[in-house]
Design a protein that fits this description.
Elements: E1 7-9, H1 12-27, E2 31-36, E3 47-53, E4 66-72, H2 77-86, E5 89-97, H3 100-110, H4 112-123, E6 126-128, E7 131-133, H5 136-139, H6 147-152, E8 158-163, E9 167-169, H7 173-179, E10 188-190, E11 193-196, E12 202-205, E13 210-213, E14 218-222, E15 227-231, H8 238-247, E16 258-261, E17 264-271, E18 275-282, E19 287-292, E20 296-304, E21 307-311, E22 314-318, E23 323-326, E24 332-335, E25 342-350, E26 359-362
Parallel strand pairs: 2-8, 10-12, 11-13, 12-14
Antiparallel strand pairs: 1-9, 2-5, 3-4, 3-5, 4-8, 6-7, 14-15, 16-17, 17-18, 18-25, 19-24, 19-26, 20-23, 20-25, 21-22, 21-24
Helix pairs in contact: 3-4
Enzyme class: transferase
Family: Belongs to the mannose-6-phosphate isomerase type 2 family.
Catalytic activity: alpha-D-mannose 1-phosphate + GTP + H(+) = GDP-alpha-D-mannose + diphosphate
Length: about 375
């Protein structure tokens, strides 16, 4: 099964039954795609046009499956309405069932360039804790193509399974508003929100009070990284903002305040011209590799837990309400020897505070940067 991470399925039992019905068809060498019976003319989804009924041993009346006639991209409003009126089109859910060997054979047949690169990448991959790491330099050579274009539109083995499972693709703020619990005024409020004379808005706050007055059909999203304000009808154009960030060499689209590492995570709290403040959480039994910096010194203040610090040739334990100074150029490592998370505040100061100013003396993980 190939499933997306951003789908909501309300009728789980119906979906499970559809999967069970699809298994023998997939085991027989077919690629099953699950098409959603459309509820309205949606322009944000691709569509699948059904063909003739799919038959098993000459019996096509009981399977409920169809051959796929065509895949179509996201239509405009008028075209979507025409699709709905025919009864022959279904939303493309992006969910598939197939034997791995069948899909790989079809990929090798229709896109040998993608198959070849992926084969090299998998051969060069390695395991790192819970992750399988692939070499970025090799994978950059892989052409970018959707499964629909690469395989599904070309294969003769594609079979459609129409389903009505209370499906929603929560790939947009509009769709989140659609499926969320609302106030009497139609507002969806997540976080610390105050509203007055508002209607049909989606308002989300991660870390600050958000107040809205006299607005309607608006999406407001506050995170530690940025704030988004948009009409619901225009919110899919946020991708244009991402392109603007790239064009202006901004880093917000790839660099975030909260960053996860194999050993835990850190959250950038504040930053100035020559300083940066982070909250660091280290998981029990994990730690940061032995390292040093060329351009900054650091102060650590333990909030909770126990830190095992190696500083040059000395090793010591630092506990709550204690601190330690890491001079510029010193070699150090940090570990959590305890059974609860280690929480500490790190204050860095220096002429350059980038994450690439780390010289690792000994790797604890294959890749922890």
């Amino acid at each position: 099964m190939v499933l997306a991470a951003d789908h909501v399925i309300a009728k789980e039992n119906v979906f499970c039954n559809a999967i069970k019905k699809a298994v023998p068809i997939a085991e027989n060498g077919n690629i099953v795609t699950f098409g959603i019976i459309p509820e309205y003319a949606e322009t944000g989804y691709g569509y699948i046009e059904r063909g003739a009924l799919f038959s098993v041993n000459g019996n096509s009346t009981e399977t409920g499956f169809y051959h796929v006639k065509n895949f179509v991209e996201k239509p405009d409003r008028l075209t979507a309405e025409k699709y709905i009126s025919t009864g022959n089109y279904f939303w493309n859910s992006g969910m598939f069932m197939f034997k791995a060997s069948v899909y790989l054979n079809e990929l090798k047949k229709f896109r040998p360039d993608i198959y070849s690169v992926c084969e090299q990448v998998v051969s060069a991959s390695y395991r790192d804790l819970d992750f399988i790491r692939i070499p970025e330099a090799l994978f950059k050579d892989c052409p970018a193509e959707s499964i629909d274009f690469a395989v599904m539109e070309k294969t003769e083995h594609c079979i459609l399974c129409p389903i009505d499972i209370g499906w929603s693709d929560v790939g947009s703020w509009q769709s989140l508003w659609d499926i969320s619990e609302k106030t009497d005024e139609g507002d969806v409020c997540k976080g610390d929100i105050l509203t007055y004379n508002t209607k049909n808005n989606y308002i989300y706050s991660e870390s600050a009070l958000v107040a809205a007055v006299g607005v309607e059909d608006i999406v407001i999203v506050q995170t530690k990284d940025a704030i988004l304000v948009s009409k619901k009808s225009d919110v899919q154009d946020v991708k244009k903002i991402v392109e603007m960030l790239k064009a202006r060499d901004r880093t917000e689209y790839i660099s975030h305040h909260e960053v996860f590492r194999p050993w835990g995570k850190f959250d950038s709290i504040d930053q100035g011209e020559r300083y940066k403040v982070k909250k660091i959480i280290v998981k029990p039994g994990e730690g940061l590799s032995l390292r040093m910096h060329h351009h900054r010194s650091e102060h650590w203040i333990v909030l909770s837990g126990t830190a095992k610090v190696t500083l040059d040739d000395k090793t010591m334990l630092i506990t709550a309400n204690e601190s330690i100074y890491i001079p510029l150029g010193a070699t150090y490592s940090l570990e959590n020897p305890g059974v609860i998370p280690l929480n500490l505040i790190e204050v860095s100061s220096g002429d350059y505070l980038g994450e690439d100013d780390i010289v690792r003396q000994k790797e604890r993980y294959r890749k922890d940067n």
